[in-house]
Amino acid sequence: MNETLEKRSMGLRASRTISNTIIYVILIVMSVVWLIPFFCIVLQSFRIESTWQVGYVIPRQWGWDNYRALWNSDFKRWYLNTFIIALAVAALQTIIVLCMSYTLSRFRFKMRDGLMRFMLILGMFPGMLTMIILYRVLKDLGLTQANAVPGLILVYVASSGMGYYVSKGFFDTIPKSLDEAARVDGATRAQVLYKIILPLAKPIVIYTILTAFMAPWGDFVFAKYVSFGTSAGMNVAVGMWSWLQQDMIGQKYTMFCAGGVIVAIPVTILFMCLQKYYVEGVTGGAVKG
Predict the structure, then answer these.
(1) Domain contains 6
(2) What is the total count of domains within the chain?
(3) How far is Cα 245 from Cα 179, in angstroms, rounded to an integer?
(4) Listed residue (225, 285, 250) closest to 101, CA to CA
(5) What is the value of pTM for the model shown?
(6) Tell me, what DSSP letter sits at residue 228?
(7) How do residues 178-201 score in pLDDT, each as one tens digit?
(8) Is residue 56 part of a domain?
(9) Are 233 and 138 in contact (CB under 8 A)?
(10) Does some domain include residue 215?
């Protein structure tokens, strides 16, 4: 009997080892395939023997010329515009989302369920459906082209409250007895949120900041629609896209690769440093709805 159990246990361990090995091999292959384009872009950014697209990956001459050329171009302005937009959106959107999520999690009022369903339905429509009317409004306000930065911030922040789903689910997991105890001690609703709930909800706060920062950082479609025609209002995605036009790609291709590396560095570092809280925020917010 013992020998049979031992053989069965050894068989289970062997099958588990084989299945884990297969999974790891698949993940490694997927990672390599996913990283190859980024690796090629990094290599091309150091190529100085030619600015054209070439048929080889490893540069024949290495140097920092492409990175130095970036700071003698409009890239600095585009990068600053992108950073200002992402930073402002991250701050404002986080405040709005967390306040909305806390309100829907803790308060019970008339039409609460209807409001949540209404925002859920609105969120199902693609944002591109509103591009024409949004552009018309921003143009009437003088927030397009050279003044596109405040216009983009306004649009990105305007519908932030509808992104309450994950944050509300996380707040639902925090016992309401903490709120009640604080209220008995004389705390206001705002003090309960900022001094008690938010310290306990650190993962979801960081998750909200990360998602709010990353969305405008890489936006291209709407930013191009609003900031066309002038370099002063472009973000980095729209500005670098202009380097890929037929009359410029031969001169700017390696600079484009260098710019892509610089654009990716802040988001990569931010995500790697805060990955733990990002995962906790996603999993914690998915527990309840």
Answers:
(1) no
(2) 1
(3) 57
(4) 285
(5) 0.83
(6) T
(7) 888 888 888 888 888 888 888 888
(8) no
(9) no
(10) yes
